[in-house]
Fold this sequence. Notes:
Layout: H1 2-13, H2 18-24, H3 28-59, H4 67-76, H5 83-98, H6 104-134
Helix pairs in contact: 1-3, 3-4, 3-5, 3-6, 5-6
Amino acid sequence: MHLxxxxxxxxxxxxxxxxxxxxxxxEPQLIDVLESFTAKFSRMQDTIADKLLPVFLTAAxxxxxxxxxxxxxxxxxxxxxxxxxxxxxxxLRNKLVHECIDNIHELSDAVKLAQKFVIELIKTQYAxxxxxxxxxxxx
Length: 139
């Protein structure tokens, strides 16, 4: 999985201290890996929440609704761990993609939180695939 690989590469180059991060933000390697991670994280989060879940829920005979309603249904089906965490990740995605984070502390916290959420994204993808295969006999 590309997101997991780029998350690992980011872990290898992302500085442990905020002071070091501030110094390294002009280095092309860190910028490239950070941009790649942000794009892949955002794309996977968007794809699951905005595209895959509505289609999956429809196939499973569930009623679809807003993103929050779909996430709540997914939580009830044990496809996601926690709707609130997904909403936090969605806000995080917006922050990483749409806002210029000038505060080093905020940038560091946002990246670290996004990296932790990568595991949830992968688990969700697997849970949907397993549910579709075992219970709906698709995929």
